[in-house]
Amino acid sequence: MTTADDVMDALVRTTFEVAGVLTRIGGEHDLSLTQLRVLGILRDRRARVTDLATYLGLDKSTMSGLIDRAQRRGLLTRGKNPEDGRVVEVYMTPAGLELAQRVEDDIRRALAPATDRLDPEQLDRLVSLLDTVFARSSRTDAVPQVTRPLR
Amino acid sequence: MTTADDVMDALVRTTFEVAGVLTRIGGEHDLSLTQLRVLGILRDRRARVTDLATYLGLDKSTMSGLIDRAQRRGLLTRGKNPEDGRVVEVYMTPAGLELAQRVEDDIRRALAPATDRLDPEQLDRLVSLLDTVFARSSRTDAVPQVTRPLR
DNA sequence: GTCGGTAGTTGGTATTACAAACCATCTCAC
DNA sequence: GTGAGATGGTTTGTAATACCAACTACCGAC
Predict the structure, then answer these.
(1) How many angstroms away from the CA of A83 is the closest CA of chain B?
(2) I want to staple A58 with a disulfide (CB 3.0 to 4.6 A). Which of A62, A133, B64, B69 is the partner?
(3) What is the DSSP code (8-state) at residue A119?
Protein backbone atom coordinates (compact mmCIF):
# COMPACT_ATOMS: atom_id res chain seq x y z
CA MET A 1 0.00 0.00 0.00
CA THR A 2 1.15 3.51 -0.77
CA THR A 3 1.37 5.81 2.23
CA ALA A 4 1.62 9.57 2.41
CA ASP A 5 5.27 9.01 3.25
CA ASP A 6 5.89 7.08 0.07
CA VAL A 7 4.42 9.84 -2.04
CA MET A 8 6.38 12.54 -0.26
CA ASP A 9 9.53 10.48 -0.60
CA ALA A 10 9.03 9.90 -4.30
CA LEU A 11 8.31 13.55 -4.98
CA VAL A 12 11.21 14.82 -2.92
CA ARG A 13 13.63 12.31 -4.39
CA THR A 14 12.49 13.18 -7.89
CA THR A 15 12.90 16.85 -7.11
CA PHE A 16 16.48 16.50 -5.98
CA GLU A 17 17.26 14.18 -8.84
CA VAL A 18 15.97 16.59 -11.46
CA ALA A 19 17.37 19.61 -9.65
CA GLY A 20 20.74 17.88 -9.70
CA VAL A 21 20.55 17.43 -13.44
CA LEU A 22 19.49 21.04 -13.93
CA THR A 23 22.26 22.30 -11.68
CA ARG A 24 24.84 20.25 -13.55
CA ILE A 25 23.68 21.28 -17.01
CA GLY A 26 23.33 24.88 -15.88
CA GLY A 27 26.81 24.80 -14.45
CA GLU A 28 28.19 23.63 -17.78
CA HIS A 29 26.89 26.90 -19.20
CA ASP A 30 27.78 28.97 -16.13
CA LEU A 31 24.20 29.30 -15.07
CA SER A 32 22.76 28.81 -11.60
CA LEU A 33 19.45 27.05 -11.09
CA THR A 34 17.76 30.40 -10.65
CA GLN A 35 19.30 31.91 -13.76
CA LEU A 36 18.17 28.82 -15.62
CA ARG A 37 14.63 29.48 -14.52
CA VAL A 38 14.79 33.11 -15.51
CA LEU A 39 15.91 32.16 -19.00
CA GLY A 40 13.16 29.56 -19.17
CA ILE A 41 10.52 32.08 -18.23
CA LEU A 42 11.72 34.80 -20.57
CA ARG A 43 12.01 32.48 -23.54
CA ASP A 44 8.61 33.34 -24.88
CA ARG A 45 7.68 36.58 -23.13
CA ARG A 46 8.98 39.76 -21.60
CA ALA A 47 8.27 40.42 -17.93
CA ARG A 48 8.56 43.11 -15.32
CA VAL A 49 11.09 42.77 -12.53
CA THR A 50 8.52 42.45 -9.77
CA ASP A 51 6.50 39.84 -11.62
CA LEU A 52 9.60 37.74 -12.07
CA ALA A 53 10.49 38.13 -8.41
CA THR A 54 7.00 37.25 -7.25
CA TYR A 55 6.77 34.26 -9.50
CA LEU A 56 10.17 32.94 -8.42
CA GLY A 57 9.51 33.71 -4.77
CA LEU A 58 12.45 36.08 -4.54
CA ASP A 59 12.96 39.57 -3.24
CA LYS A 60 12.97 42.42 -5.77
CA SER A 61 16.54 43.20 -4.88
CA THR A 62 17.63 39.64 -5.54
CA MET A 63 15.94 39.89 -8.91
CA SER A 64 17.81 43.13 -9.64
CA GLY A 65 21.11 41.41 -9.06
CA LEU A 66 20.24 38.38 -11.16
CA ILE A 67 19.21 40.63 -14.02
CA ASP A 68 22.34 42.74 -13.62
CA ARG A 69 24.64 39.78 -14.01
CA ALA A 70 22.70 38.23 -16.89
CA GLN A 71 22.62 41.59 -18.60
CA ARG A 72 26.36 42.05 -18.14
CA ARG A 73 26.75 38.69 -19.86
CA GLY A 74 24.61 39.91 -22.72
CA LEU A 75 21.83 37.40 -22.14
CA LEU A 76 19.02 39.84 -21.53
CA THR A 77 18.09 43.49 -21.68
CA ARG A 78 16.13 45.99 -19.64
CA GLY A 79 13.58 48.16 -21.42
CA LYS A 80 11.20 50.90 -20.36
CA ASN A 81 7.46 50.54 -20.29
CA PRO A 82 5.95 53.49 -22.19
CA GLU A 83 2.75 53.41 -20.12
CA ASP A 84 4.40 53.43 -16.72
CA GLY A 85 7.77 55.05 -16.19
CA ARG A 86 8.44 53.03 -13.06
CA VAL A 87 8.37 49.57 -14.52
CA VAL A 88 11.34 47.90 -16.10
CA GLU A 89 10.66 45.20 -18.63
CA VAL A 90 13.15 42.42 -19.04
CA TYR A 91 13.56 40.41 -22.21
CA MET A 92 16.08 38.14 -23.84
CA THR A 93 18.74 39.09 -26.33
CA PRO A 94 19.36 36.83 -29.34
CA ALA A 95 22.40 35.48 -27.49
CA GLY A 96 20.21 34.70 -24.50
CA LEU A 97 17.63 32.93 -26.64
CA GLU A 98 20.32 30.89 -28.30
CA LEU A 99 21.81 29.87 -24.96
CA ALA A 100 18.38 28.96 -23.64
CA GLN A 101 17.83 26.74 -26.63
CA ARG A 102 21.15 24.98 -26.16
CA VAL A 103 20.47 24.46 -22.47
CA GLU A 104 17.03 23.08 -23.17
CA ASP A 105 18.45 20.57 -25.62
CA ASP A 106 21.06 19.51 -23.09
CA ILE A 107 18.45 19.05 -20.40
CA ARG A 108 16.29 16.92 -22.66
CA ARG A 109 19.31 14.82 -23.49
CA ALA A 110 20.31 14.53 -19.84
CA LEU A 111 16.84 13.39 -18.81
CA ALA A 112 16.49 10.93 -21.67
CA PRO A 113 18.20 8.00 -19.93
CA ALA A 114 15.65 8.35 -17.14
CA THR A 115 12.56 8.89 -19.23
CA ASP A 116 13.58 6.15 -21.63
CA ARG A 117 12.86 3.69 -18.86
CA LEU A 118 9.16 4.23 -19.52
CA ASP A 119 7.23 3.23 -22.60
CA PRO A 120 5.07 5.84 -24.38
CA GLU A 121 1.94 4.84 -22.54
CA GLN A 122 3.64 5.13 -19.15
CA LEU A 123 5.09 8.52 -20.09
CA ASP A 124 1.64 9.67 -20.96
CA ARG A 125 0.31 8.55 -17.63
CA LEU A 126 3.20 10.14 -15.72
CA VAL A 127 2.72 13.51 -17.38
CA SER A 128 -0.99 13.43 -16.77
CA LEU A 129 -0.57 12.47 -13.12
CA LEU A 130 1.97 15.22 -12.52
CA ASP A 131 -0.27 17.73 -14.27
CA THR A 132 -3.11 16.70 -12.01
CA VAL A 133 -1.05 16.88 -8.85
CA PHE A 134 0.10 20.37 -9.64
CA ALA A 135 -3.23 21.49 -10.98
CA ARG A 136 -2.32 22.24 -14.54
CA SER A 137 -5.60 20.87 -15.76
CA SER A 138 -7.86 22.36 -13.10
CA ARG A 139 -10.62 24.54 -14.39
CA THR A 140 -10.88 26.66 -11.27
CA ASP A 141 -9.11 29.50 -13.04
CA ALA A 142 -11.55 29.65 -15.92
CA VAL A 143 -11.98 33.34 -15.17
CA PRO A 144 -9.69 35.16 -17.57
CA GLN A 145 -6.61 36.55 -15.88
CA VAL A 146 -5.89 40.24 -16.08
CA THR A 147 -2.21 39.64 -16.54
CA ARG A 148 -1.19 36.41 -18.16
CA PRO A 149 0.42 34.28 -15.44
CA LEU A 150 4.10 33.42 -15.83
CA ARG A 151 4.01 29.78 -16.92
CA MET B 1 0.53 12.30 -27.90
CA THR B 2 3.21 12.85 -25.28
CA THR B 3 6.47 14.25 -26.58
CA ALA B 4 9.89 14.38 -24.97
CA ASP B 5 9.16 18.04 -24.39
CA ASP B 6 6.01 17.30 -22.44
CA VAL B 7 7.86 14.93 -20.15
CA MET B 8 10.70 17.34 -19.60
CA ASP B 9 8.23 20.11 -18.91
CA ALA B 10 6.25 18.08 -16.42
CA LEU B 11 9.36 16.96 -14.57
CA VAL B 12 10.90 20.40 -14.47
CA ARG B 13 7.68 22.04 -13.40
CA THR B 14 7.19 19.46 -10.68
CA THR B 15 10.74 19.98 -9.53
CA PHE B 16 10.36 23.72 -9.11
CA GLU B 17 6.96 23.28 -7.51
CA VAL B 18 8.24 20.86 -4.89
CA ALA B 19 11.50 22.76 -4.45
CA GLY B 20 9.42 25.85 -3.77
CA VAL B 21 7.49 24.07 -1.06
CA LEU B 22 10.69 22.72 0.48
CA THR B 23 12.33 26.13 0.38
CA ARG B 24 9.32 27.73 2.02
CA ILE B 25 9.00 25.14 4.77
CA GLY B 26 12.75 25.13 5.29
CA GLY B 27 12.73 28.90 5.55
CA GLU B 28 10.11 28.73 8.28
CA HIS B 29 12.64 26.77 10.31
CA ASP B 30 15.64 28.81 9.14
CA LEU B 31 16.93 26.03 6.95
CA SER B 32 18.15 26.29 3.38
CA LEU B 33 17.27 23.64 0.84
CA THR B 34 20.73 22.14 1.26
CA GLN B 35 20.55 22.11 5.05
CA LEU B 36 17.18 20.42 4.70
CA ARG B 37 18.77 17.70 2.64
CA VAL B 38 21.58 17.22 5.10
CA LEU B 39 19.11 16.76 7.93
CA GLY B 40 17.13 14.36 5.77
CA ILE B 41 20.17 12.25 5.05
CA LEU B 42 21.44 12.16 8.61
CA ARG B 43 18.10 11.25 10.09
CA ASP B 44 18.80 7.56 10.13
CA ARG B 45 22.58 7.33 9.76
CA ARG B 46 25.87 8.98 10.48
CA ALA B 47 28.10 9.90 7.55
CA ARG B 48 31.56 11.15 6.76
CA VAL B 49 32.04 14.66 5.44
CA THR B 50 33.28 13.58 2.02
CA ASP B 51 30.46 11.08 1.52
CA LEU B 52 27.94 13.80 2.25
CA ALA B 53 29.67 16.19 -0.14
CA THR B 54 29.89 13.60 -2.90
CA TYR B 55 26.29 12.59 -2.50
CA LEU B 56 25.08 16.17 -2.53
CA GLY B 57 27.36 17.10 -5.40
CA LEU B 58 29.15 19.73 -3.31
CA ASP B 59 32.76 20.53 -2.60
CA LYS B 60 34.28 19.31 0.67
CA SER B 61 34.84 22.88 1.75
CA THR B 62 31.20 23.75 1.18
CA MET B 63 30.26 20.77 3.29
CA SER B 64 32.58 21.93 6.06
CA GLY B 65 30.80 25.26 6.20
CA LEU B 66 27.35 23.72 6.20
CA ILE B 67 28.32 21.42 9.04
CA ASP B 68 29.91 24.30 10.96
CA ARG B 69 26.74 26.34 10.91
CA ALA B 70 24.46 23.44 11.71
CA GLN B 71 26.77 22.44 14.54
CA ARG B 72 26.81 25.96 15.90
CA ARG B 73 23.02 25.74 15.98
CA GLY B 74 23.26 22.51 17.89
CA LEU B 75 21.64 20.40 15.19
CA LEU B 76 24.51 18.02 14.61
CA THR B 77 27.86 16.92 15.95
CA ARG B 78 31.24 15.89 14.61
CA GLY B 79 32.82 12.70 15.89
CA LYS B 80 36.07 10.85 15.28
CA ASN B 81 36.31 7.55 13.50
CA PRO B 82 38.38 5.18 15.66
CA GLU B 83 39.63 3.26 12.62
CA ASP B 84 40.87 6.23 10.61
CA GLY B 85 42.04 9.37 12.34
CA ARG B 86 41.44 11.48 9.25
CA VAL B 87 37.73 10.98 8.86
CA VAL B 88 35.13 13.03 10.63
CA GLU B 89 31.75 11.48 11.17
CA VAL B 90 28.72 13.68 11.32
CA TYR B 91 25.54 12.79 13.13
CA MET B 92 22.47 14.47 14.48
CA THR B 93 21.86 15.72 17.99
CA PRO B 94 18.50 15.09 19.65
CA ALA B 95 17.60 18.69 18.84
CA GLY B 96 18.45 18.07 15.19
CA LEU B 97 16.37 14.92 15.07
CA GLU B 98 13.47 16.71 16.62
CA LEU B 99 13.69 19.56 14.13
CA ALA B 100 13.95 17.09 11.25
CA GLN B 101 10.79 15.40 12.44
CA ARG B 102 8.90 18.69 12.66
CA VAL B 103 10.07 19.71 9.21
CA GLU B 104 9.06 16.38 7.73
CA ASP B 105 5.60 16.71 9.18
CA ASP B 106 5.29 20.21 7.76
CA ILE B 107 6.38 19.05 4.33
CA ARG B 108 3.88 16.23 4.32
CA ARG B 109 1.18 18.68 5.31
CA ALA B 110 2.27 21.17 2.67
CA LEU B 111 2.20 18.57 -0.08
CA ALA B 112 -1.13 17.11 0.99
CA PRO B 113 -3.30 19.56 -0.98
CA ALA B 114 -1.45 18.47 -4.11
CA THR B 115 -1.35 14.75 -3.48
CA ASP B 116 -4.96 14.76 -2.34
CA ARG B 117 -5.91 15.42 -5.93
CA LEU B 118 -5.14 11.78 -6.68
CA ASP B 119 -7.00 8.73 -5.45
CA PRO B 120 -5.05 5.92 -3.78
CA GLU B 121 -4.72 3.96 -6.98
CA GLN B 122 -3.30 6.96 -8.85
CA LEU B 123 -0.89 7.70 -6.04
CA ASP B 124 0.31 4.16 -6.26
CA ARG B 125 0.91 4.48 -9.95
CA LEU B 126 2.66 7.83 -9.60
CA VAL B 127 5.06 6.53 -6.99
CA SER B 128 5.82 3.46 -9.04
CA LEU B 129 6.40 5.49 -12.21
CA LEU B 130 8.74 7.90 -10.43
CA ASP B 131 10.60 5.01 -8.85
CA THR B 132 11.05 3.48 -12.27
CA VAL B 133 12.20 6.70 -13.87
CA PHE B 134 14.83 7.22 -11.23
CA ALA B 135 15.75 3.58 -11.02
CA ARG B 136 14.85 2.83 -7.46
CA SER B 137 13.60 -0.60 -8.39
CA SER B 138 16.42 -1.58 -10.73
CA ARG B 139 18.21 -4.78 -9.81
CA THR B 140 21.47 -3.80 -11.45
CA ASP B 141 23.00 -3.17 -8.04
CA ALA B 142 22.24 -6.63 -6.71
CA VAL B 143 25.91 -6.92 -5.81
CA PRO B 144 26.21 -5.97 -2.15
CA GLN B 145 27.70 -2.52 -1.67
CA VAL B 146 30.78 -2.13 0.45
CA THR B 147 29.49 1.05 1.98
CA ARG B 148 25.78 1.49 2.22
CA PRO B 149 24.81 4.20 -0.27
CA LEU B 150 23.34 7.40 1.10
CA ARG B 151 19.64 7.07 0.35
C1' DG C 1 0.54 70.40 -6.51
C1' DT C 2 1.10 67.46 -2.68
C1' DC C 3 0.85 62.84 -0.64
C1' DG C 4 0.58 57.90 -0.25
C1' DG C 5 1.61 53.93 -2.80
C1' DT C 6 4.22 51.20 -6.28
C1' DA C 7 8.54 49.80 -9.09
C1' DG C 8 13.38 49.27 -8.97
C1' DT C 9 17.94 50.07 -7.29
C1' DT C 10 21.50 50.44 -3.78
C1' DG C 11 24.03 49.13 0.31
C1' DG C 12 24.81 46.01 4.04
C1' DT C 13 24.98 41.27 5.80
C1' DA C 14 24.70 36.08 5.96
C1' DT C 15 24.81 31.91 3.42
C1' DT C 16 26.13 28.96 -0.28
C1' DA C 17 29.51 27.43 -3.34
C1' DC C 18 34.08 26.71 -5.55
C1' DA C 19 39.14 26.49 -5.86
C1' DA C 20 43.58 26.48 -3.93
C1' DA C 21 46.54 25.89 -0.14
C1' DC C 22 47.16 23.62 3.89
C1' DC C 23 47.57 19.99 7.93
C1' DA C 24 47.03 15.45 9.66
C1' DT C 25 46.77 10.85 8.89
C1' DC C 26 46.99 6.73 6.38
C1' DT C 27 49.20 3.32 3.04
C1' DC C 28 52.32 1.36 0.27
C1' DA C 29 56.94 0.50 -1.41
C1' DC C 30 61.22 -0.20 -0.18
C1' DG D 1 60.66 1.35 9.97
C1' DT D 2 60.85 5.33 6.98
C1' DG D 3 59.68 8.28 3.24
C1' DA D 4 56.51 9.49 -0.70
C1' DG D 5 52.26 9.95 -2.23
C1' DA D 6 47.31 9.67 -1.47
C1' DT D 7 43.23 10.74 1.22
C1' DG D 8 40.09 13.37 4.55
C1' DG D 9 39.05 17.86 6.37
C1' DT D 10 39.72 22.63 7.32
C1' DT D 11 40.99 27.34 6.14
C1' DT D 12 41.17 31.26 3.20
C1' DG D 13 39.71 34.01 -0.57
C1' DT D 14 36.29 35.17 -3.98
C1' DA D 15 31.80 35.29 -6.45
C1' DA D 16 26.91 34.51 -6.52
C1' DT D 17 22.56 34.23 -4.15
C1' DA D 18 19.36 36.00 -1.05
C1' DC D 19 17.31 38.97 2.47
C1' DC D 20 16.18 43.52 4.60
C1' DA D 21 16.10 48.42 4.99
C1' DA D 22 16.68 52.71 2.92
C1' DC D 23 16.41 55.27 -1.08
C1' DT D 24 14.86 57.37 -5.80
C1' DA D 25 11.57 57.89 -9.36
C1' DC D 26 7.20 57.76 -10.82
C1' DC D 27 2.10 57.17 -10.70
C1' DG D 28 -2.62 58.36 -9.17
C1' DA D 29 -5.97 60.46 -6.38
C1' DC D 30 -7.40 64.17 -4.01
Answers:
(1) 32
(2) A62
(3) -
